[in-house]
Design a protein that fits this description.
Elements lengths: L6 E2 L1 H11 L12 H11 L2 E2 L12 H7 L4 H9 L5 E7 L1 E6 L3 H16 L11 H13 L3 H12 L2 E2 H4 L25 H11 L3 E7 L2 E6 H4 L2 H4 L6 H16 L1 E3 H5 L10 H14 L2 E6 L6 E4 L9 E4 L10 H8 L20 E7 L1 E7 L1 E3 L4 E4 L2 E3 L7 H15 L3 E4 L1
Parallel strand pairs: 1-9, 15-17
Antiparallel strand pairs: 2-4, 3-4, 5-7, 6-7, 8-10, 9-10, 11-12, 12-13, 13-16, 14-15
């Protein structure tokens, strides 16, 4: 048992993090829905991103931990008739979360409503600014539009924002008195603003994806009745559970890593996180420790273990293990930044670079692309970390496994 205030080596902290994230056990020979469910419960959230250079990012963390599995299993869990996961931005950015977490984020939906119609309520709410200013404009120009959209979906069934707004004229940036919803990034039709408002406030949920475009339906037609009947928690109780779940998923982390605005599982205001962490320390759920090389106070989950780790995995840039880049650096001594938004001339290691985990270390950066036309997993560059052991054989095996999982016929190194 670790004592309060005890120092933990970087090696131990790294193993604790890896075990907490599901890398402490060997990949199973056979993968079923129970094993996929266990991975999602361990990582807490699967970030959803539109980048499809290799495959959609939410599929990759499950592959990293389980190896070859049927992606249709995850699809059914998220968007099937009896979903076990729900999609939203109430956790870390846009992500899939277990439906058991739905009662823990309902307070965020209430806060989103207040944020749209009154003053901002703090960093725990991440309603797109286009929704805030867009709905305030629509209240003057097209009052009742959100209600009309909700009634239409109720009557006609699930549909995309494009289907809701079919025939609408897109507002132009040179319109009189433009708002941010007509900017280069948020050039949204009025119907899209209304749909996103209804989604942000929990009146609609995402029931599926068509060519990766969100399909919206009434919340009561998407989530299981048992989940909807679960009593709503107070914000304090929900936030306390979110911090506890984040700590269990990370193993050991600073308060900012637990629930920071940019790198935490469930963003909360710093003052709220500080108060809840103190409560969880008092309850024995968190143990204050000092991690080698980390100036800030760290907290060890009472469920954490530091077992040996013998992993082999290519990690999505959006994997929960590494999405907090500062934490990745101090645990793995691995400076990592995604390069898809970096001009080509300034890229150092490639375009879509996946860290390669071997044992309990990140030993290389592997630039990957799935060329579906030629059925090839293309590897433009491989960059070894300083003093990394020879990883040729395990990396080739992992690349071949990934290609097979993706339905590609070959691997080609450029």
């Amino acid at each position: 048992m670790v004592a309060v205030g005890e120092s933990i080596s970087r090696d131990s902290a790294r193993r604790i993090a890896l075990v907490a994230q599901g890398f402490g056990v060997a990949r199973p020979r056979r993968v079923d829905v129970r094993k996929v469910r266990r991975v999602v419960e361990r990582v807490g959230v699967l970030q959803v991103d539109s980048v499809n250079v290799v495959c959609r990012s939410h599929y990759l963390p499950v592959f990293s931990r389980l190896g070859r599995y049927d992606r249709a299993t995850l699809d059914r869990m998220a968007w099937g008739d009896a979903p076990e996961l729900f999609e939203g931005f109430w956790g870390h950015k846009a992500s899939l979360m277990p439906v058991s977490a739905y009662p823990l984020v309902r307070w965020r939906m209430r806060a989103a409503e207040r944020q749209v119609w009154s003053e901002p309520v703090g960093p725990e709410v991440s309603v797109p600014w286009a929704v805030v200013v867009g709905m305030q404009r629509l209240e003057k120009e097209r009052p009742g539009l959100a209600g009309e959209v909700l009634a239409r979906i109720a009557a006609e069934g699930a549909m995309t924002a494009g289907e809701v707004g079919a025939g609408e004229v897109r507002r132009r940036k040179d319109d009189p008195d433009p708002d941010p919803s007509t900017g280069s990034m948020w050039n949204w039709q009025d119907a899209k603003i209304a749909v996103e408002y209804l989604f942000s406030t929990g009146q609609l949920m995402i029931s599926g994806r068509r060519n990766f475009e969100r399909v919206y339906d009434l919340t009561e037609r998407v989530l299981p009745d048992a989940v909807l009947r679960t009593p709503e928690l107070t914000a304090d109780d929900a936030q306390r559970e979110l911090v506890r779940l984040s700590a269990r998923s990370l193993g050991v982390a600073t308060a900012r890593e637990l629930c920071g605005k940019t790198g935490g599982h469930y963003p909360l205001p710093a003052a709220t996180t500080k108060r809840i962490v103190a409560e969880l320390v008092e309850a024995g759920d968190l143990i204050p420790v000092q991690v080698e090389g980390v100036k800030q106070q760290s907290y060890l989950s009472s469920t954490a273990t530091a077992d040996p780790v013998d992993a082999r995995a290519l990690l999505s840039p959006f994997d929960t293990l590494i999405w907090n880049r500062d934490r990745t650096q101090h645990l793995f001594d691995f400076f990592y930044r995604i390069s898809i938004y970096t001009p080509a001339a300034q890229r150092v290691h490639g375009y879509y670079v996946l860290p390669f985990l071997l044992g309990d270390r990140l030993v290389a950066r592997v630039d990957l692309k799935a060329d579906r036309k030629t059925s090839t997993l293309v590897v433009p560059t491989i960059t070894a970390e300083p003093a990394a052991p020879d990883f040729t054989e395990p990396l080739v095996a992992e690349l071949e496994l990934m290609a097979e999982w993706l339905g590609l016929e070959r691997v080609r190194l450029l």
